[in-house]
């Protein structure tokens, strides 16, 4: 029901256009003879292609900041969830940071989202405390809250208000919380 990366089909079209261009160039260049005129024509075509496709700089987004709160004393080293969760830029930035700290991450972005990700986003948007309980029961005991994209501090209040949440540390705009897995496991429903 979806086409993944349709731009890849353009590569085949580009190859076909390059072959057609070479055939046309060969036909036109043979009219003017071989040797020096053909070399001059090839040089002009090369200069034209380079002038059309040359790039001075590739515009890139800034590299996401690393969060020092992830590495503070008392961090468990297991899976982590970064809040807010579900926003495209925030999730991609969390994935980038994951390359530095190496911990499994709940946040993510792809062309495919597993069915539970929408439920997780929805439950978190409602600020349902059972979502944090279930995350902890499944081994995701550390929750990092970034207050920069949340100036009102709603995410921080949400995690802080959980009865089993304990503040591990605060570094700048980020706070690391631990949800007690033992308490969460006792509240988790039996499947």
Task: Give a short overview.
It is built from seven helices and four strands. It is α+β, with helices and mostly antiparallel strands and 191 residues long.
Explain the layout of strands and helices.
Layout: H1 7-31, H2 36-53, E1 80-83, H3 88-101, H4 115-125, H5 129-137, E2 142-146, H6 154-160, E3 165-171, E4 174-179, H7 181-187
Parallel strand pairs: 1-2
Antiparallel strand pairs: 2-4, 3-4
Helix pairs in contact: 5-7
Helix content: 40-55%
Q: What is the radius of gyration?
A: 27 Å
How many DSSP-defined strands? Answer: 4
Low-confidence stretches are none
What best-fitting shape do the alpha-carbon axes yield?
elongated
Query: End-to-end span in angstroms?
Result: 32 Å
Helical stretch count? 7
The strand order across the widest sheet is 1-2-4-3
Summing up helix and strand content along with how strands pair, one would put the structural category as alpha+beta
Q: What profile does the largest beta sheet have? A: 4 strands, mixed
> pLDDT average, as an integer?
85
Query: What pattern of helices and strands is seen along the backbone?
Result: HHEHHHEHEEH
Taken as a percent bin, the fraction of beta residues is 5-15%
